[in-house]
């Protein structure tokens, strides 16, 4: 680990990285980071001796994330439709090499697999396997013995390995396939869409009851290709465009209305030369951190009026 005299503000990216992977939400992760700094300032004002700023801040952020996650899991049980993590733009990072190195632990697929773990298991796994903390440090942060922390990490890895999907395509191969897919969507080209999709491709949508979205997964190359050919046609009708971006270390795109406001975000899982999974986040509550958000229902009304 780094020396203990690091400036607190220099650790903000690390704290956000821990909190975001724990919670899967940008807004909540930012709240955790802010509260972490407030507690640090309060501790200093009270004369608390802090030997390592990094260790102290990491511990506070992790414990706050654990507490927040416990209450968030209850809320997610009543979430309308499929819950997906809040999308995070990663192609404008100041440290692309760092993002590339940790892209797998940022992917939506990985964050959803983490949902299988309880909050403490998730913290132990992330701190040790992703962020490189020693088991002695992890044990101190989560309030467990070092031996127990090792057991929790082993159990977490076992759960993750059972459900974790490997993506064998290079970043460039993923980018090229994504470009073909989004071009086919924009053109409404059914044959081209079929050529980019895996036979068992699945689409998930997250509207959270706040915007129109698919309530259940849609599976199979025939259904999915026809769905996106239709979506492309509707987009052209109302002037909506697709802007490819890297989302959570994966190929994806921002979908923008004629005024440049975000309607939704697409994220793709690519493996074996095909798009395996498509995730669409259209819940406006999960998009505000990316920029101005469009009124999707108004676009839908405009589309219906043109059809009449």
What does this structure look like?
Keywords: Coiled coil, Sigma factor, Transcription, Transcription regulation. Residues 153-180 form a coiled coil. Residues 178-261 form the SnoaL-like domain. Residues 108-160 form the RNA polymerase sigma factor 70 region 4 type domain. Belongs to the sigma-70 factor family. ECF subfamily. There is one protein chain. By secondary structure, this protein is an alpha+beta fold. It folds into two domains: 8-163, Butyryl-CoA Dehydrogenase, subunit A, domain 3 (Up-down Bundle); 171-307, Nuclear Transport Factor 2, Chain: A (Roll), CATH 3.10.450. Helix content is 53%, strand content 14%. It is built from twelve helices and six strands. It has helices at 12-23, 26-45, 53-76, 96-106, 108-114, 119-130, 135-142, 146-163, 171-187, 190-194, 221-238, 296-307, and strands spanning 197-206, 218-219, 241-247, 250-256, 262-271, 274-281. The protein has a six-stranded mixed β-sheet with strand order 2-1-6-5-4-3, with helices on one face.
Task: Kindly summarize this structure in a few lines.
By secondary structure, the protein is of the alpha+beta class.
Keywords:
single chain; 308 residues; alpha+beta; Butyryl-CoA Dehydrogenase, subunit A, domain 3; Nuclear Transport Factor 2, Chain: A; 2 domains; 6-stranded mixed sheet; 12 helices; 6 strands; 14% strand; transcription; transcription regulation; RNA_pol_sigma_r2; coiled coil; RNA polymerase sigma-70 factor
Q: What is the topological layout?
A:
Blueprint: H1 12-23, H2 26-45, H3 53-76, H4 96-106, H5 108-114, H6 119-130, H7 135-142, H8 146-163, H9 171-187, H10 190-194, E1 197-206, E2 218-219, H11 221-238, E3 241-247, E4 250-256, E5 262-271, E6 274-281, H12 296-307
Helix pairs in contact: 1-2, 1-3, 2-3, 3-7, 6-7, 6-8, 7-8, 9-11
Organism: Pseudonocardia zijingensis
Family: Belongs to the sigma-70 factor family. ECF subfamily.
Coiled coil: 153-180
